[in-house]
# Entry
Amino acid sequence: MVVPMGNSARLSLRVDLSSPEAGRVGPGKVALLEAIREHRSISAAARQLDMSYRRAWLLLDALNQSFKAPVVITATGGKRGGGADLSPVGEQIVRHYRELEKAAQSAAGPHLKALQQLAGR
# Structure
């Protein structure tokens, strides 16, 4: 949620989760998972998000190390080319993260508006 403030400044709420067991999960990793689901390709997802293929792989590796099962299922290339798709765990990560994000935005809305009014510009 973004709330305009005086002098064009804006307040925004960002959900960023971290734990010793699950590592970090935030909007960037979730956007990568969503782009992989959309394109069925890690390289196409990376291009959409303006990141290198290597960066995408590193983020996926971090997610895979953090959860009990892989978050993405990949197929190696061949005549029809390779591909990638979210595993059931990857789908659950996206679903739970987006639901948590909605709940946080809903709860934070009145507070962000109050802070905007305090800025008064």
Notes: The mean pLDDT is 87. Residues 88-119 form the longest helix (32 residues). The longest strand covers residues 72-75. The chain has four helices and six strands.
